[in-house]
Specification:
98 residues, 60% strand, 3-stranded antiparallel sheet
Length: 98
């Protein structure tokens, strides 16, 4: 069984409606599978990871961005050390799965 790793997360900016957080993970890390009730945006600053949504893999690399729809189960697997910005509404709620 693979070990789930929580990414290092740091608040970058917070406005009236949006929050921007930096995410970092090491190569090989598997982040928790989850859904969110609202859509959000991932912007890759460094490295690469695989974003799995609805059993489809999307490889994201430095310079890529991806809109994650609401209520879609997804998970990230780092294929290189990565750093990304996650932009989301302040009222977003996450549900995590095993």
């Amino acid at each position: 069984m693979e070990k789930i790793t929580n990414p290092k997360v740091r608040l970058l900016a917070e406005g009236d409606k949006l929050t921007a957080k930096q995410m970092k993970a090491k190569s090989g890390d598997l982040l928790p599978k989850h859904t969110a009730n609202l859509e959000s945006v991932l912007v890759v600053l460094e490295g690469a990871f695989i974003l799995t949504m609805d059993e489809t893999d999307h490889t994201l690399r430095e310079g890529d961005s991806f809109i994650i729809p609401a209520d879609i189960k997804h998970q990230i697997r780092a294929i290189e050390d990565f750093r990304a910005v996650h932009i989301m509404p302040k009222e977003i709620e996450f549900t995590f799965y095993k």
